[in-house]
Each structure stands twice: as C-alpha cells, then as structure tokens.
C-alpha cells in the first residue's frame, strides 16, 4: 500500500464527509449526500470501499441510492486504486465517464526560478469573480443555479479545510489563485485557476509555490495536490517539483455530459 497516496486520499475523503448532510451505509461502502447542493457531483457520491463488486453492481447501487435522493447524476468513487483502474472499461461499456485523479507530492526543486513577489494572501470573497469565470469556462452550458451550488460547495469545502487563499491581483481584481487546506499536519493545494487572458505569465506556478512555502513554514509534514490524470496541468506541477504517488478513479453518469 502506498502510504502517501492513502494519506492524501484519506484527507480528501475527510473533507468530503465534513461537507455531507447525510452518510448512508451501503453494502458496497458509504453513500455521501449533500441534499442542499444536490447538483454538485463531488458532494453526492457512492464511495465504494469494499472491493470485489463489478461495475454493473456499483452502477445498480448508485442508481438505487442516488435516484432515491432525487439526484440527476450518478457518481461512484472507488477507494481502491487498482480496482478503480480495472473498472474503467466496464464502466465505459455502461456509458459512464471516467475521472482519473493523480495525487502528487513535492519532492524536488522546481525546474526554474519562480518569482513569488506578486502573490498575496486574500480573503475568500476576493475570489468570487475568478471562481465563477473558471466554472463557466469549464462548464460552458451550465445554468446559474448550478454555478451557485458549485460556488457554495467550494465555500463549504474551504471552511472544512480551514483554507487560506493565495492570489495574483491585477488592477484590483484576482486573476490567478489557489487554496491551501489544512488539518494541522497535512496540507492540500487545491483549486488552481487563472483567467484565460492572464495565462502564460507564470501566475499559476507562483501561487502554487507560495502555497507550498506557506505549508512548509507552518510545520505541515505532508503536502499534496490532485490533478486530472488525463489533462495538461499535471505537467506544470511536475515542472514545479511534484511527483505522482498514485491515482484514484471515479465514474460519472450525467445528463450534463460531456464536461
């Protein structure tokens, strides 16, 4: 068992549970619900903790529990990495989308010097415009209620993680930012985002490294971040000195696809 991967995953699941309104036992694990924010996939998920079930069995259990809760989506997170990886093809055959998440930890210096002088710490309210812009860019067909629920979920997670926020501000507006979550010993760097017109200036690198520096000077003995295993930001994090310690898998069936 990869202890770094499991420690990071346990932190993430503790954050998810802290934002839950209901935790429902299942023969396959635990169904996590936030009925108020029912459109937010990450807060309404069947967490499969018992290995050995097939994709069909997981999909059926998600259908049973999540349809009963009135959810429009079906979401399954597989706690065991190897089992999760092996389920990709079976879930694809059922029409589900794979989300593969790579967990990364800092182990090397960045491949070049990064100027952190433009990075400042800000209050959460300063991030609202940037956050909404990133949501609408990522989910171009999303409606206002879904944007609202995603932003409320972000605020709830930030509160659970005692978040600090690091940003680059241009003309009085935040154009790039990241959050730093903490439980006192473990820290997670999360929600890295930059407005499209300000990309290419090194701002994302700067906010990530500032968050990492703050985690270290506040005596966290473990720092990690999570990236999409099939998207380009993981390459940025590698250049900043982060290395993969493993992957976790989740599966989604949603009328909002593709996303």
What would a concise description of this structure say?
This protein is of the alpha+beta class and 259 residues long. It is 36% helix and 30% strand.
Can you give a write-up of this model?
Helices cover 36% and strands 30% of the residues. It is of the alpha+beta class. The protein folds into two domains: 100 residues, no CATH class; 126 residues, Gcn5-related N-acetyltransferase (GNAT) (Aminopeptidase, 3-Layer(aba) Sandwich), CATH 3.40.630. The protein has an eleven-stranded mixed sheet, with helices on both faces. The radius of gyration is 18 Å and the shape is globular. The two termini are 32 Å apart.
Q: N- to C-terminal separation?
A: 32 Å
Mean pLDDT: 96
CATH topology of the largest domain: Aminopeptidase
Tell me, what is the CATH class of the largest domain?
Answer: Alpha Beta
Number of strand elements: 11
Strand portion: 25-35%
Structural class: alpha+beta
Bin the helical content: 25-40%
Q: What is the overall number of helices?
A: 8
Rg is 18 Å
The CATH homologous superfamily of the largest domain is called: Gcn5-related N-acetyltransferase (GNAT)
**CATH architectural label of the largest domain:** 3-Layer(aba) Sandwich
Number of domains: 2
Question: What topology, given as strand order, has the largest sheet?
Answer: 1-2-3-4-11-5-10-9-8-7-6
Sheet of most strands: 11 strands, mixed
Question: What is the N-to-C succession of helices and strands?
Answer: HEEEHEHHEEHHEEEHEHE
Question: Which term fits the overall shape?
Answer: globular
* Low-confidence sequence ranges: none
